[in-house]
Amino acid sequence: MTPISLADIVSSLPSEDSWGPPTATENTLDGVPYAPFSKGDKLGRMADWTAEGKDRERGGRQAYNRNFRDQQIYGAGTSSLFAVQVAEDESSFSVVDNTRTSTRGRGFGRGGTIFRGRGQRGAPQRGGRGGFSRVGAGRGQAGDRFYDQRGRGGRGRRFGWKDYDKPQRNRDSSVNIRPDWSLLEEVDFNRLSKLHLETPDGEDVENYGFLYYYDRSFDKPPVKGTERKLQSLERAAYNVTTSSDPVLHELAEKNEATVFATSDILSMLMCAPRSVYSWDIVIVRQGNKIYFDKRDGASIDLVTVNENAADAPMEVSEAGGKQDSINTPSALALEATFINHNFTLQTVVESSSSKVEFPHPNPFYNASEETEPLASKAYKYRRFDLSLEKDDEPLHLVIRTEIDALMKNTIVNEDQQLVIKALNEFDHKAQGAGGALDWRTKLASQRGAVVATEMKNNSCKLARWTTQAILAKADIMKLGFVSRQNPRSAAAHVILGVVGYKPREFASQMNLNLSNGWAIVRTVVDLIRSAKDEEEDEEDEEQRPQQQENKVRKFVLVKDPNKPVIRLYSVPPNTFEEEDETGTDVKDEEKAEEAEE
């Protein structure tokens, strides 16, 4: 049998089914095939986006007649229909135009029509659901559907304005986490916010210090141009930590309580779910006593500014050099701390005749060594009961609280205790202002809006102040509004007004739940009490009680700088003492070298 070749098979097929280019027929023009076009040919889609020409670009919906929108434009795209496609040609790439398109030039300057809402076709309408539609950019075009920078329409930009240009916030921790620290517990803010513990009102144990009366003239709104300047007064004021308080040591020796703290430290822990910046608290357990302490120069002592704002102030490194050095978070915190200290001193009337003395003098003032006069301050040591029904022994907490001034109540004829704080405005137009209003023009007429904005931007700071006032059982909390005399300078400030609130009512306005704060404190105390040493399992049971009475353990509670999480670390007992000794030795060596030179 003879084999059949491929050429025989091809030759046996009819000419119309053969391979290769077709022969010249009536559908060719000089050997080049062409496709017939007609207005009656339907493509089955809304429009042909391959169409080219200036008429299509400029005319938009007007050039593309709505009566024939389902029909192809006669001869559209003929120039590129049979064009040869070169491999990796530029036409295979789609470029997104990020330039801003002028709506006025397209719509009005060139005789276009603006369609609003879902009105009648071909006629301009007002209102409606659709908003504003640009002429020459139909609703179905891919460029407007996915990359419209103004975010109009259902599929526009889904994020904030220029969020792609915002740098990533990577804040530093308030304390350096060392490798020898062991992590005991990590708790996120969602779990802390769900805790609840009802605690009865505290009782006063000891009272120290003295108070002046508040100057009521600050309550009057100042006349424009006659604002009072904030003065810098030299007064002796103290912010002593728990371990350095002699009164708390005496109460600990008398077994008045198990846990000891100050109001500024404890308020930070109670308002932890509202915090954004990093902070740390040092906790010392000596036997069965627990002390909530702080480091020297800790971030807790500084007053933050717009910590909770959506666009909080940035450091110069984060802003790429565009941020003013006086509007960084660290600079604003120092400025706010300075303002609070001086505002409290300036708003009292220093008079020896109207001075109210407490049973004990100021425990931190030494008249033989101090040259500056004392500031108006009263220290109230109050005891709270944090016990639960399941506890075998009661758990009491002693807190050192502070009162700043007194005020006469004309109705009841009694003295009311005040806590005085100050909010500060740096520049309502600068980055990090958080959408704040101009206090000079809006404070008198829109005081509620100004306070509401501050509640939003400074939620953590105001919650801490309110908690401190409630812990001290203050009757009124005075909030001052202090602004820069020149927004570009942090040297001079003016007082624009003072507002008074009852702490409990102010707490309800800002949705501050004190029982949640007490539950957070009790949770941390339970973690400290349940923490065991690695050597405890190896110790003899008879020697363990004696060793535990004098044993000192140290813990550090740190807020993560970039996450809503707090972490409890077990650290060596001499963790921060080594830093102080090292710093002292280095200074001594430097002084010795300078003396030799």
Quick structural summary:
By secondary structure, the protein is α+β, with helices and mostly antiparallel strands.
List keywords for this structure.
single chain; 597 residues; alpha+beta; five-stranded mixed sheet; Eukaryotic translation initiation factor 3 subunit D; mRNA cap binding; cytoplasm; translation initiation factor activity
Written account of the structure:
Keywords: Cytoplasm, Initiation factor, Protein biosynthesis, RNA-binding. Residues 160-172 have a biased composition (Basic and acidic residues). Residues 533-542 have a biased composition (Acidic residues). It is found in: Cytoplasm. The chain has 597 residues and is α+β, with helices and mostly antiparallel strands. The chain has 2 domains: 39-77 and 99-165, no CATH class; 182-530 and 547-592, no CATH class. Helix content is 24%, strand content 20%. It is built from 15 helices and 19 strands. The chain has helices at 6-12, 54-59, 103-107, 142-147, 189-193, 246-253, 263-270, 329-346, 439-442, 447-457, 459-471, 503-509, 514-530, 544-550, 575-596, and strands at residues 28-29, 32-33, 182-188, 203-211, 213-214, 228-229, 259-262, 280-286, 289-293, 348-349, 356-357, 377-385, 396-403, 405-409, 414-425, 476-486, 489-501, 552-559, 565-571. A hairpin with a 2-residue loop joins strand 16 (476-486) and strand 17 (489-501). Helix 7 packs across helix 13 (514-530) and helix 11 runs antiparallel to helix 12. The longest helix has 22 residues, at 575-596. Residues 53-84, 101-160, 537-542 and 580-597 have low confidence and may be disordered.
